[in-house]
Write a structure and sequence with these properties.
Length: about 1250
C-alpha cells in the first residue's frame, strides 16, 4: 500500500543545541574520483542503498533480519539434546548397561534395560523441546512485526521485520521501534533532526538527538526515493553501541558518517512524526544482537552436586562388584569342582563358569555384577526430578500472587531446570530503567527564597513516622502481623495520628493520596491558586516558576480531547517541572525556532497572558556539566541566564551577593535527600547587553570550531557565562519506582541477599534511584570511582584539557589507587552502623574488569553494602555478572527488561526477564519472567525456598531408598556364594522405582512445605537455609546414605536371622527363597514409605493417598500376581494367600523391621528439635501451639530475629532515620539540661 509523505515541519531544532549533533561541513572529498575506502581492517562492509537484492548473493550475502534466541533448531535439536542428556553421569552408565544387555552376560533382558533409559531420555528431551518451542513462538512475535518499506517506484508498503534486507529504505513513524540498524536520511523536521529513546539498549530515559546528513535532506517524501541510489562503506558488525565509522557516497561525493546518524534496532522514535532510513545491519549483525550471547545451557548447583553423588555411588557399585567378582572367581577355582550337582564340567566353551579359567569367569561376572547392582544408581531419579520440576513450574505459573492484573501477565517459568536454584541466590544484579523504575517523576517539594514548600511526605518519612509512633505507643501489634511500614492506615501506630519529624515538618501517618495529576504530587496552599503573591518574596517565586517553564528543551503537544498540553521531554525530570509550572499558573504552550511562549495566569487576575521569551542560547545538560542553562531575552528586553543543575555545581558558581538563601536552601536540600527525593538547584544571572554580545561572539566561534579541542572551547565559553549566579531555590521530585520496589528490596535485604544495580544511565540518576529504593541513604559513605578523581576536577577548561591527555596507564593506576584507598577505608571503619556504597562508571569499570585488577575490585564491591555500576554497556553488564558468579562462587540472579540486559541475564546462574512494555528481548532470553520487580520477592523467598528444600530432600531420599534396596541384593549374593542370584522376583524390581515408591517421592517434591508462604514472607531469614545449603551439604547427604546403609543391614539380617532356622508355615516348613525375598521386599516398601512420612512436614490429602496407596498397591499386586498362572508368577504362585498372610511371623517381621529401620531417624529429629532446633522447627512449634495468636509479644520477637543483618533496604534506612532523630532529641535534652541554672535568692528574702 503506497503512502505519500507528510508535510515537513519547518522547524530547525538543531540550532538550539550546543553540544549535540555537530554536522561535518562539506563533503569529505571533492575530487573527481572520490575514494570510498576506509583504512584498516574491520571496515569491509558495503551497502547498496535501495538495492536490497544485491545483498542476497556473493560476495555480500548479508544475513536476513530474522532473529532467534532458541537453544535448538530442527537440525541441531537431536545432537544437542542428546548431548545434554548424556552429560548426566547416570545416563551414561545406563547407556553402557543397555548396550551390554544384548550380550549373554547380562542378568536382565535387553528390553528391561533399554526401555527405561529410552523413556527417561525421551521424556527429558520432550520437555526441552517444549520449552524451546515457547522461545520460538516469542521470537516469531518479534519477527512478524510490520514495518513500512520502499517497494520500488516511490511506493511504500508493509513488510514483516524478518523479511527486511540490507539496503532497504524504511519509513518509521512516531513511537515505533526501528526494525534494524539504520542510517538516518531525513525526518519530519526540516533539518533532519529526530529524537530517539534508547532505554531498551542502554537503560537511559533521556531522549537522544540524531541528525541526518545535509545532503540527504531533500529525501523528504515517498516519491523522492523513486530513483534514490547511494553506496555506504562502513565498519563490520560489532557490539559497540556508541561508535560508528563509515562513508556515504552520494551523487559522486563522499561524506563521513558518525554515530549521530545511526538509528539502532530496538530503540524507539519519539517526538518526531516520521523518519526515512536505509538498513545497514540486519538480524544478528545489528549492534543489539551483537551484544547478546548464545543461549547457554544452565544446570543448577544441586544437579551438578548430584553428579558427584553419582560418582560416589558408582564407586560403591564398582567396589561391591569387584568384591562379588573376586568372590566368584575364588569360588569357581576352589569350591565349584566339588559342586557335583551343578555339573560344572558340562559348561562347554562358556567362559562364565569355566573351571580352567576362573580369572576370566570372574571378569565376566564383574560385568554381570555391574548390571545387577545397577539399582544403587537410581535411573528414575532424573525423570522423577523432571516431573517434579515441571509441576513446580506449573505452580509458579499459576500463582495468583504473581499475576499482574494491569497487563494480564502471570509469572512464567520458561525453564524448569533451575527451580531449586531460586532458593540459593546470593547476589541479585538488576537493571534500573524499566526494572526498578517506571520512568515517572512527581514534583513533591520545593525551596524558594529560603522557605520550604510542600506538605506531602515521602514514603521514607511516612515509614519512619509509623515506626516511631509504634514505639511510643508500646509497639503493640495487631493480628500477629508485626510492624509493617508499608501497610495502609495506622493500625500499628497506636493512637498517634501524626508525628513531628524535624524542622516543623509534620508527617501524617496515612497512605498518601494518589495524585490526580500525573507528575504533580505537590500540596501546599501557600503556592497554589496565586496565593504565592502574599508570600514574603513574590518576585523570587515568580522567577522560580519562570525558570521551570523556560529552562528546558521539551516540546509541547496539545491534547485535543482534554485541551491541555502534554510535554515530550528529554528526561522525566523536565516533564515533571513543566507540569508543576503549569499547575502553578505558568503553562509552557508553544516553541518556535527562537522563542518559548508561556501562558501566565498570575500576577494578573484576568485571562492568562501569553509571554514570549526569546531563546538566545541553550547550553544543554550532560553528565559532565551536571547543569543546563538558557540565555533568554524577556519582553522588557532584559537578557537573563537561567540555570538549573546539581546543587554542588550551582553553589560553587554563586556570586557573593547571590548566596542570600544558601544556608536555608542547603538545609532543605539535605532534608529532601534524607526523604529520598531527587534535587536540583535553580539560579539566574542578569546580563548586560555588551557583556552578552562579547561572550556570544566567543561562544559562536567555539560552537563552529572543528577539531579535537572543540568541546574544551565550548566548556570554557560556558564557564565564562555560567558564573556569578544568584540562587533562587531548589526542587525536589520523587522518582516513581515501580509499585512495591522498595518493599521488595527491603524484604530481599532482610533475607540476606546482596543487590547490585547495573545501569546505562548517568551516575547522578543512578544515585538518585539508589536513594529512592533505599540502596543508598543519607550518612552512607559513597565511594565514587571514575577515570579522573573528583578531587582533580576543576572548573578550568584548560586544566580539564590537560587531564584528558593523561596516558591510559596513568588512568589505570589512578583507578587502582582509588580502589585500594577505598578498601583500606572500609577495613579501618570501626562504627558498627557504618555502611559504604560503591558507585563506579563504565569507563572506570573497563579498567576494573581487567585481569590484574578485577579481583581487587570484586573484594571492594563485596565489602560494600550496595554496588551501583552506571554508564555500563550491555557487554559490561555481562562481564560484571560473570565476575561476581565466578569470583564469589555463589549463585547470581540477573533481572532486566530490555535488550541491553540480555547478556547479563544469560550470563547469570538465573536470568529473570520483566515482561514490560519495552519489548520482549529480556523475557525471551530469561529463565523466568515476571511482570514487575516486586514479584521477585515471592519468586525467591517463597517459591525458591520451597523448591530448594523439596528438591534437596527428594534427592537425598531417593539415594536413601535405592541404597537400602540395592545393597540387599549384594548381601544376598554374597550369602549365596556370589552366585549372581537375585533374592527378588524380576517384577518386584521393575515395580520398585516405577510404581511402588515413585509417587510418594514426587508428592514430596511437589507439595512439601516446611512453613506457609505467609510465614516465609514474615520470616525472610529462613531463605538463608538455601544459600548456606543446609539441606544438601555433604553432612546431610552422607547422613542419608548412612541411613540407607543401616536400613539395608536391618532389612537383610533381621529377615535372614528370623527365617533361617525356625518353621515358617503351620506344617513346620521353613521359608524358601521366594518367601524370604517377598518378606524382605515388603519390609522395604514399609520402611521407605514410613521414612518419607517422617520426612514430610506438610500433609495434604494427595500425599496421604499416595503414601498409603503405595503400600496398598504392593499388597494388591502381590495378591493379583500370586493368583496368576504359575507360568507367569513362578515361585510366587499364591504366595500371599497360602504362605505369607496366614503366617504371624510375616506380619511380626514387617512391623519389627519397619520400626528398627526408622527408629534412629525418629530419635535424631526428636533430639534436634529439643536441643538444637533449626529456624523452621521453632516456627512450626509456635504455629502448632497457636502461640502466634495467643502470645503476640513472642511472635513479634521471633519475627524481629528472623531478619538478616543488613545495611540496605527500607528497614535499615528507617532504623538510621530513627537513630538520627533520637540523637537529635538526646542532644536537645542535653542542651536544655546544661542551660538549667540555680537562680540566686531574692533580695527581699535577704
Amino acid at each position: 500500500m503506497a503512502r505519500t509523505g507528510r508535510i515537513r515541519e519547518k522547524l530547525r531544532w538543531s540550532k538550539i543545541y550546543t553540544f549535540s549533533c555537530i554536522r561535518p561541513t562539506g563533503s569529505m572529498t571533492a575530487d573527481a574520483s572520490p575514494s570510498l575506502s576506509l583504512p584498516g581492517p574491520g571496515h569491509s562492509r558495503v551497502v547498496r542503498c535501495n538495492q536490497p537484492h544485491a545483498h542476497r548473493r556473493n560476495p555480500l550475502n548479508y544475513p536476513s533480519n530474522y532473529i532467534s534466541t532458541t537453544k535448538y533448531n530442527i537440525v541441531t535439536f537431536l545432537p544437542k539434546a542428546i548431548f545434554e542428556q548424556f552429560r548426566r553421569v547416570a545416563n551414561l552408565y545406563f547407556l553402557l548397561a543397555a548396550c551390554l544387555s544384548v550380550t549373554s552376560i547380562s542378568p536382565f533382558s535387553p528390553v528391561s534395560m533399554i526401555a527405561p533409559l529410552a523413556f527417561v531420555v525421551g521424556l527429558s528431551m520432550a520437555k526441552e523441546a517444549l520449552e524451546d518451542w515457547r522461545r520460538f513462538v516469542q521470537d516469531m512475535k518479534v519477527n512478524i512485526r510490520k514495518a513500512i518499506v520502499h517497494k520500488g517506484n516511490g511506493r511504500f508498503g508493509n513488510k514483516f521485520w524478518h523479511k527486511i534486507r540490507v539496503g532497504d529504505v524504511v519509513k518509521v513513524e512516531k513511537n515505533q521501534f526501528f526494525p534494524a540498524d539504520l542510517l538516518l536520511l531525513s525526518s519530519s523536521y526540516e533539518d533532519g533532526i529526530c529524537y530517539v529513546e534508547t532505554m531498551n539498549l542502554d537503560g537511559e530515559t533521556n531522549l537522544k538527538v540524531k541528525r541526518s546528513l545535509e545532503v540527504t535532506l531533500p529525501l523528504e517524501d515517498d516519491q523522492s526515493f523513486n530513483d534514490f541510489s547511494a553506496t555506504i562503506q562502513c565498519e563490520d558488525p560489532n557490539s559497540s553501541l556508541y561508535t560508528f565509522v563509515g562513508n556515504l557516497e552520494y551523487e559522486r561525493q563522499v561524506y563521513a558518517l558518525d554515530p549521530s546518524q545511526i538509528l539502532l534496532r530496538d530503540s524507539k522514535l519519539r517526538n518526531t512524526s516520521y523518519i526515512y532510513g536505509v538498513v545497514i545491519f540486519t538480524g544478528h549483525d545489528t549492534k543489539v544482537m551483537q551484544n547478546a550471547t548464545e543461549s547457554p545451557s544452565k544446570r543448577s548447583r544441586i544437579e551438578k552436586k548430584m553428579d558427584y553423588i553419582i560418582y560416589i555411588l558408582f564407586t560403591v557399585l564398582v567396589l561391591v562388584s569387584l568384591i562379588s567378582s573376586i568372590g566368584f572367581a575364588v569360588k569357581t577355582k576352589f569350591e565349584m569342582p566339588e559342586w557335583w550337582y551343578l555339573q560344572p564340567q558340562r559348561v562347554g566353551d562358556s567362559h562364565l563358569y569355566n573351571l580352567s579359567t576362573p580369572g576370566l569367569s570372574g571378569i565376566f561376572h564383574l560385568v554381570t555384577a555391574l548390571i545387577l547392582y545397577g539399582y544403587l544408581i537410581p535411573i528414575s531419579l532424573y525423570v522423577s526430578i523432571e516431573v517434579v520440576k515441571v509441576l513446580q513450574a506449573m505452580f509458579i505459573n499459576q500463582d495468583l500472587q504473581m499475576y499482574d492484573e494491569e497487563t494480564g501477565n502471570p509469572a512464567q517459568a520458561r525453564t524448569s531446570n533451575l527451580n531449586e536454584e531460586l532458593g540459593q541466590v546470593d547476589t541479585i544484579l538488576s537493571d534500573k530503567t524499566g526494572t526498578l523504575t517506571c520512568n515517572q517523576m512527581d514534583f513533591l517539594k520545593c525551596s524558594i527564597a529560603g522557605f520550604s514548600y510542600g506538605l506531602r511526605s515521602s514514603e521514607v518519612e511516612i515509614a519512619a513516622a509509623k515506626q516511631i509512633a509504634s514505639e511510643e505507643s508500646g509497639g503493640s501489634v495487631q493480628n500477629g502481623s508485626g510492624i509493617d511500614y508499608w501497610e495502609n492506615g495506622g493500625s500499628s501506630c497506636g493512637s498517634s495520628p501524626e508525628i513531628k519529624l524535624e524542622g516543623g515538618i509534620t508527617c501524617k501517618i496515612e497512605k498518601a493520596r494518589k495524585p490526580m495529576i500525573k507528575g504533580f504530587s505537590f500540596e501546599d496552599d501557600r503556592l497554589m491558586q496565586g496565593n504565592w503573591l502574599s508570600e514574603p518574596d513574590p518576585d523570587v517565586i515568580l522567577l522560580f516558576f519562570r525558570i521551570l517553564a523556560v529552562c528546558h528543551t521539551a516540546i509541547p503537544e496539545l491534547d485535543e480531547e482534554t485541551g491541555s498540553f502534554t510535554y515530550e521531554a528529554e528526561s522525566p525530570d523536565e516533564g515533571a517541572f513543566l507540569v508543576a509550572a503549569r499547575e502553578f499558573g505558568f503553562e509552557f504552550c508553544r516553541r518556535t525556532q527562537t522563542s518559548v511562549f508561556v501562558r501566565e495566569r498570575y500576577p494578573s487576575s484576568a485571562d492568562p497572558i501569553e509571554r514570549e521569551f526569546k531563546i538566545l542560547n541553550l547550553l544543554e545538560f550532560n553528565s559532565k556539566r551536571k547543569r543546563m542553562s538558557v540565555v533568554i531575552r524577556d519582553e522588557n528586553g532584559q537578557v537573563l541566564l537561567l540555570c538549573k543543575g546539581a546543587d554542588s555545581i550551582i553553589f560553587d558558581r554563586l556570586s557573593k551577593n547571590g548566596r542570600m538563601y544558601e544556608v536555608d536552601t542547603s538545609k532543605h536540600l539535605n532534608e529532601y535527600g534524607e526523604a529520598g527525593l531527587r534535587t536540583l538547584a535553580l539560579a539566574y544571572r542578569k546580563l548586560e547587553e555588551s557583556e552578552y554580545s562579547t561572550w556570544n561572539t566567543d561562544f559562536l566561534k567555539a560552537k563552529t570550531a572543528i577539531g579535537p579541542d572543540r568541546e574544551a572551547q565550548l566548556e570554557q565559553a560556558s564557564d565564562m557565562i555560567e558564573k556569578e549566579l544568584i540562587l533562587v531555590g531548589a526542587t525536589a521530585v520523587e522518582d516513581k519506582l515501580q509499585k512495591g520496589v522498595p518493599q521488595c528490596i527491603d524484604k530481599l535485604a532482610q533475607a540476606g541477599l546482596k543487590i547490585w544495580v547495573l545501569t546505562g544511565d548517568k551516575m547522578e540518576t543512578a544515585i538518585n534511584i539508589g536513594f529512592s529504593c533505599s540502596l543508598l541513604r543519607q550518612g552512607m559513605k559513597q565511594i565514587c570511582i571514575s577515570p579522573v578523581n573528583k578531587d582533580l576536577i576543576t572548573q578550568d577548561a584548560n586544566k580539564a584539557l590537560v587531564l584528558s591527555l593523561v596516558t591510559e596507564q596513568a588512568v589505570k593506576e589512578d583507578i587502582q589507587k582509588q580502589i585500594t584507598n577505598a578498601s583500606q577505608m572500609i577495613k579501618l571503619e570501626t562504627d558498627p552502623h557504618a555502611a559504604s556504597a560503591l558507585i563506579i562508571d563504565g569507563k572506570a569499570l573497563t579498567y576494573a574488569l581487567e585481569e590484574d585488577m578485577k579481583q581487587q575490585f570484586l573484594s571492594l564491591a563485596v565489602d560494600c553494602a550496595s554496588v551501583i555500576c552506571c554508564r555500563v554497556s550491555p557487554k559490561q553488564k555481562a562481564l560484571v555478572t560473570r565476575l561476581v558468579k565466578e569470583g564469589t562462587g555463589k549463585v547470581t540472579l540477573a533481572i532486566g527488561d530490555g535488550a541491553n540486559d540480555v547478556g547479563m541475564i544469560q550470563e547469570a546462574d538465573i536470568g529473570v526477564g520483566i515482561s514490560g512494555v519495552e519489548g520482549m528481548q529480556a523475557v525471551m532470553a530469561s529463565d523466568f519472567s515476571i511482570s514487575q520487580f516486586r514479584y521477585l520477592e515471592r519468586l525467591l523467598v517463597v517459591h525458591g525456598h520451597w523448591c530448594y528444600k523439596r528438591i534437596a530432600q527428594m534427592i537425598c531420599y531417593f539415594f536413601y531408598k535405592n541404597i537400602a534396596f540395592g545393597l540387599t541384593l549384594f548381601y544376598f549374593e554374597a550369602y549365596t556364594g556370589f552366585s549372581g542370584q537375585s533374592v527378588y522376583d524380576d517384577w518386584y524390581m521393575i515395580l520398585f522405582n516405577v510404581i511402588l515408591t515413585s509417587l510418594p517421592v514426587i508428592s514430596l517434591g511437589v507439595f512439601e512445605q516446611d512453613v506457609s508462604s505467609e510465614v516465609c514472607l514474615q520470616f525472610p531469614a529462613l531463605y538463608q537455609q538455601g544459600p548456606k545449603n543446609l539441606f544438601f551439604d555433604w553432612y546431610r547427604i552422607i547422613g542419608w546414605m548412612s541411613n540407607g546403609l543401616y536400613s539395608s543391614l536391618m532389612i537383610f539380617f533381621l529377615n535372614i536371622g528370623i527365617f533361617f532356622t525356625q518353621a515358617f508355615r503351620q506344617g513346620g516348613q521353613t521359608a524358601d527363597m521366594a518367601a524370604i525375598g517377598t518378606t524382605m521386599f515388603t519390609c522395604i516398601i514399609w520402611a521407605v514409605n514410613m521414612q518419607i512420612s517422617l520426612t514430610m512436614c506438610h500433609f495434604t490429602w494427595i500425599q496421604i493417598v499416595l503414601v498409603c496407596g503405595s503400600i496398598a498397591t504392593w499388597y494388591l499386586f502381590l495378591l493379583a500376581y500370586g493368583e496368576s498362572s504359575p507360568l507367569i508368577s513362578g515361585n510366587a504362585f499364591h504366595i500371599l494367600v497360602e504362605a505369607l498372610a496366614p503366617s504371624p511371623v510375616f506380619w511380626s517381621v514387617t512391623l519389627l523391621v519397619t520400626a528398627a529401620c526408622n527408629l534412629p531417624y525418629l530419635i535424631h529429629i526428636s533430639y534436634q528439635r529439643l536441643y538444637n532446633p533449626m529456624d523452621h522447627h521453632v516456627i512450626q512449634e509456635i504455629k502448632y501451639y497457636k502461640k502466634d495468636v495467643e502470645d503476640q509479644c513472642m511472635w513479634t520477637r521471633e519475627r524481629s530475629k528472623a531478619r538478616s543483618a543488613t545495611k540496605i533496604g527500607f528497614t535499615a534506612r528507617v532504623d538510621a532515620k530513627i537513630r538520627q532523630l533520637k540523637g537529635k532529641l538526646h542532644m536537645k535534652v542535653s542542651s536544655l539540661s546544661a542551660q538549667t541554672v540555680v537562680l540566686p535568692p531574692s533580695p527581699d528574702v535577704l
